[in-house]
Amino acid sequence: MDVTHAIATILKAEGVEYLFGFPSNPLLDTGAAEDAGIRTIVTRQERTAVHMADAIGRLSAGDEIVAFACQHGPGTENSFGGVAQAYGESAPLVAIPAGYDEAKTDVDPKFNSRVNYQHVSKSCEQLTSPAAVGETMRRAFSAARNGRPRPAVVEVPKDVFHEEIPGDLEYHPSSSNRSGPDPDSVEEIAEVLLEAERPVIYAGQGVHYAKGWDALRELAETLEAPVATSLNGKSSFPETHPLSLGAGSKSEPGQLAHFLREADIIFGIGCSFTDTAYGITVPDGTTVVHSTLDPTDIDKDVESEYSLVGDAGLTLEALVDAIARRLDGESRGRFDDVAAAIESVREEWLDEWRPKLTADEVPINPYRVINELTTVVDAEDAIITHDAGNPRDFLAPFWESTEPLSYVGWGKTTQLGYGLGLAIGAKIYRPEKLCINIMGDGAIGMTGLDFETAVREDIPILTIHLNNYEMASYETPFSGDFADIGTALGGYAERIEDPEEVAPALERAIEKTEAGTPALLEFITAKETELSRPDLEE
To answer: Which residues form a coiled coil (predicted)?
Structure first.
């Protein structure tokens, strides 16, 4: 057996169902992956393939690791941004780029993945000995599965792919393990949370990976405390729940900032508290309790008075038990007051935004598109994501996620064109869901041709393009009729300029996706600049 077929066999043994990528890589070119029972999908651009793998890793809560393969040289260079994005967003996958022949791998100016990917991957190795294929691949999968999920990279020089492994392949798949928090610290923090007058819980993506959704809800209802999430943690707590504050980001609901201002303790669970424009700002003087799986995040950007290191689900369950023992069945008696205060602030905030959400102006106000989307689409039946910039900032405050892992949030490295691959990956993994991505002009220009990948592979996603002929603050107008492009690529597409046609167009497009056809809606929108940015200093 050669290295190529050995790797394909190992991928299947590790539970890999999909290999995404771009030729030329022997795993794709020889049919080895398909022979092993793995579905292969080739994209128009390497980065999109990585984004698809990223989506499945996250939407499976880390249970399903997807592999990515690409050509040596230009393929690995083009893929770098996708792997970097997955690293920044803590998404697990295993990348297997080809490298130059072993004798030339370190010769300048050849691109060496082992050298260049080290800072955007959790582990990064080069396979040089066919005898080491098993242990090398096992280390990669173990790194992706355990601890903080992130990409693992194994570069295989292109001549090594064709070398024979010695003897028979004997491979035992990697295991997945969880670690719990220090019991003494749990007891201390249970006391701290119960003594707080105005606690706020801040839930991150770690709650998703730990499947800690029920425990998070139980903790919130036991403490009778409001819950905010990060963008990556959005949907870990139902946003229709009376205690929900929504997700913190560059643009966020009004009630979130209000309760952060009032909080005496913020309990961060499964989050990094990374200093970013796409998270919350902790007010000065607020006591911070930080619980995370990655100890390097403790006190990294935000100082914490108390901390717990461990799996978010195990930590939440331990805290629920410790707090329940102390309450002994007694209610704290403030649920109704807290819920009423959240609803009051929320309604006041929505009243301020209703004119934009229902605007009749032409070009269409993008907030009108978002508002109609929330009305037409049942959030329970959908998985939604967005691109960087305005699509994220328009959507995040107003879309209420009700089911875990129904919103793929992101933002730390803000890579344009990310959302399309996420939606395609989401639809592959959850074919029964309506999978939506919202793009702007910059994003569709970077990865929009991979709409054809969705058409070619019968992956009926819904892409919404908010076209204001502008990218960020760049003044030179962008042009193009992207609805025509969507049609030319074989999908269903419409160009919408009348605000009264927004909802009917959405309904038509959804019907097309239900019939198996990818749909692209191009909404001609106004150059909206106002974002929901409630002030912590108010």
So the answer is: none
